[in-house]
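Changelog note: in this version the structure field was regenerated for every chain. One regenerated record is shown below for reference.
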Amino acid sequence: MLEIVVKGVECYDEAKNEFISTKDTTLCLEHSLLSLAKWESKWHKPFLNNDNKTQEEILDYVRCMTITRNVDPSVYAAMTINQIEQVKAYIEDPMTATWFNDKNQPKRRQKAITAEIIYYWMVALQIPFECEKWHLNRLLTLVRVCNIENAPKKKMKKGDIYKQNAALNAERLARSKSGG
């Protein structure tokens, strides 16, 4: 969870022709499948693509991430650029010690990943729904680990087996200092 304190401000709302003031507010934020689903249900497009988001879309995602109750909507407009950067860094944080060696993996064109796709993966992999509250990157890492662990093991070709056995036999002979 990320906590950000947004300082109270006083500003003029030209549309309403009035001054608006906000109090110091602590926002508790969670980048989770729940926040992703809320945002996508409003904007009707995938959040996890590489398209640039508008300022309005970014602030709305912060609103969807907010687990603090009864936050004045004008608080989000009072967030600083530094606070938005903190939120972006939190979103990009892997939140896990697991890493993958992708150097040898071919780059595949990826389809859009939406909240419903992730929920499907959770159902298919029997991941409990309480994980929808986890940091999203941690949940996606769990999905990837489950896929790797459940994948059928690749069989070696006969020629590769013969080469491996020959190398093992040569190593054993060298260790035992025997001629065979």
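Spot check on this record: Helices lie at 33-43, 55-65, 74-77, 81-92, 115-124, 136-150, 158-176. The first strand starts at residue 2 and ends at 6.
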